[in-house]
Structures are given as C-alpha cells and as structure tokens.
Amino acid sequence: MRNIQTSISSEMSKKRVLSLIFFTLFALNISAQSAHNLIREGNTAFEKKQFAEAEEFYRKAVEAEGSGKAVYNLGNALYAQGRYEEAIPKYADASRIAPNKSAKSGSFHNLGNAHFQNGELEEAIEAYKDALRLNPSDSDTKYNLARAQRQQRQQKEQEQKQEQQDQENQDDNKEQQENNEDQEQQDQQEQQENQEQDSDEQQQQQQNQEQKEGQDQQEQQAGESQEMSREEAMKLLQIMEQEEQNVQKKMQLKNVKPNKSDKDW
User: Fold this and answer.
1) Phi, psi (5° rounding) for residue 81?
2) pLDDT digits (tens, 9 = 90+) for 204-243
3) How far is Cα 108 from Cα 134, in angstroms, rounded to an integer?
4) Which of 109, 116, 146, 149 is nearest to 131 (CA)?
5) Could you give the CA distance from residue 136 to residue 169 in angstroms, rounded to a whole number?
6) How far, in Å, CA of 230 to CA of 226, rounded?
7) In the predicted model, what is the mean pLDDT of residues 63-89?
8) Stated pTM of the model
9) How far apart are CA 53 and CA 222, in angstroms?
10) 35, 64 in Cβ contact below 8 A?
11) Main-chain phi, psi angles of 118, to 5 degrees
12) SS3 260
C-alpha cells in the first residue's frame, strides 16, 4: 500500500508541474501576444506622429514583456519628442538586450544620435564607433560619426580661440592695470611736486613780502630820518639868520656918531 500511495503521489506531482509549465507558457504566450499588439499599436501611433500616445503603448509593452524591441521603440518615441536625455538610457538598455548584431548596431546608432542632440559629442562619437564595429558598412553611421567629429574639432578650435581671447583680455587688463598704476604713481608724484612747488612759491612769496616790508620799513625810516634832517637844517638856518641879524645890528650901532650941541657949558 505504501508503494502504491507513493506512486500515486509522484504521478500527481508530475501532473501539477506539467500544469504549471502549461499555464506559464500560456501566460507567456498571452503576454507576448499582448506586448506584440501593444508594440503594433505604438508603431501605428508613431507613424501618425502621435509620439506621446506611442510612448504609452511602448511603455505597456515593456512592462508586459521587456523585449529589446519594445525598449528600443520607447527610446524612439522619447527621441521624437525631443526628450533626448530620457531616450539615452533606453537605447543603452536596448543595445544590451538586442537579439542580434543588426539590432544592437541600430541601438548604438540611435544612442549616438541622442548623445549628439544632447550636446554630448564625445559620447556620441563612442556610440557611433560601437555601431560601426558591429556593422562597418553602415553609411549613415559613418556620416554621423564624421559630422560629430567635425563639430567636436570646431568646438575645440572655438574653445582654444576663446581661451586665447580670454588670455589676451587678461594680458590687456593686466597691462591696463599696470598702466593705471604707473599713471596713478606719476599723478601722485606730480601732485607731490606741485605741492612742493606751491610750498616753495608760497615760501618765496612770503620771503618777498617780508623783504618788501623790510624795504618799506627802511625807506620809511630813511624818509623819517631825511625829514628830521630838513627840520634840523631849517632850525639851523633860522639860527644863522638870527645871528646875522644880530651882527648887523651891532655894526649899525658902531657907525652912529654923537651929535654936537650948539651951546657950550
């Protein structure tokens, strides 16, 4: 009885496993069909340039299946809306899970385009190179690679010119600053010299004023002295005239004779 029960239990376990596998395959088949239908609906919307609607279908397809095609198409829908930064990781994921070289190369190609549009030239160049390693004859990728490299060279040249211009401006500013400092120093020196000159002139004017005042004082003193001499001379002249008159009076007295009387005593 124990062996028969064991056999029956084993048979039941096998049936359960087979049933589980069947239902799993059935669910996967339904999921694949659902993802396929969603991708097809997304493609229809994409062709009509209804990119936001296509994005929704592709997102549901990724959730249902997660195939490289669904992820790749989702990247295309984001790219078409100008959302390059969001499209970049989708293309990167698609390149990792792509089923063949052609799909992988296409994912790298569009990854390069997204980087290019996002202004990331170095990353774009590397993505184009990865695409060409898988498909060396892809002329579109070659063209895009050459364009990215040319723009990168132009960008570097522009950066070098800008750096050179900045350096020249810096040198000019430094030279101008030095000239300003020299001019300022020269102005200060001239100002100091002018102040010294003004001080010397003021000192000279003061000396001249003092000298003039001294001369005026001497002249005044000389004038006063001369005026005093004239007064003394006048007094002396008056004295001499008085003495002369006195002398003449004396002389007149000597020349006078006494009168004789007519009668004798």
Assistant:
1) -90, 5
2) 887 777 777 777 777 676 555 555 567 777 787 888 888 8
3) 9
4) 109
5) 47
6) 6
7) 96
8) 0.57
9) 123
10) yes
11) -85, 5
12) coil
